[in-house]
Design brief:
It comes from Cobetia marina (Deleya marina). InterPro entries: Lipid_A_biosynth_N. This is Lipid-A-disaccharide synthase N-terminal domain-containing protein. This protein has 157 residues and is an all-alpha fold. It contains 5 helices and no strands.
Length: 157
């Protein structure tokens, strides 16, 4: 078998890109404290898959070629779905912003002066709601962990 060092380097480079996606997914999940698949996961999958496909073609390995080729379709589809979802969310946010009434003097009076919400910025309202939901989720998680800790302490006593 012909072992060209450039092709070996390409193969290892593709494998490194492909493997890096799992590290990215793991770190993103740890940061979020829940399992998530970030967009970078799919980009690394695509880059690693394309590089490994080139290596497989060079090796003339039909099993390897079929496996990497099929994977590329899945990675591209996921990136397409993410792009469509983002466009849909942006459109929805734009529709929401255009349908919101401009704040009146009486509605402004309900907000503290200098508050970002007093400006009637729809994005800030949505972000405020999202953060309130996240706060509620984290409060629930803290309570769950405290109860678990108390049960553990009681079982050790």
């Amino acid at each position: 078998m012909d072992v060209n060092p450039w092709w070996v380097a390409i193969g290892f480079g593709g494998q490194a890109l492909f493997s890096a996606r799992f590290i990215i997914q793991w770190l993103a999940s740890e940061k979020a404290r829940r399992s998530i698949v970030p967009r970078a996961f799919w980009w690394f999958s695509l880059a690693g898959g394309m590089t490994l496909l080139a290596y497989a073609i060079h090796r003339q390995d039909p099993v390897f070629i079929a496996g990497q080729g099929a994977g590329l379709l899945i990675y591209l589809r996921n990136l397409s779905l993410i792009k469509r979802d983002r466009a849909s969310r942006q459109q929805a946010a734009s529709d929401d912003a255009s349908s919101v009434e401009k704040p009146t003097a009486s509605s402004k009076a309900c907000e503290p002066e200098g508050s970002p919400l007093a400006a009637g910025d729809n994005w800030l309202r949505a972000e405020h709601a999202r953060l309130a939901e996240e706060n509620a989720r984290l409060t629930h998680e803290v309570a769950r962990l405290e109860a678990r800790s108390a049960r553990h302490k009681a079982s050790c006593a």
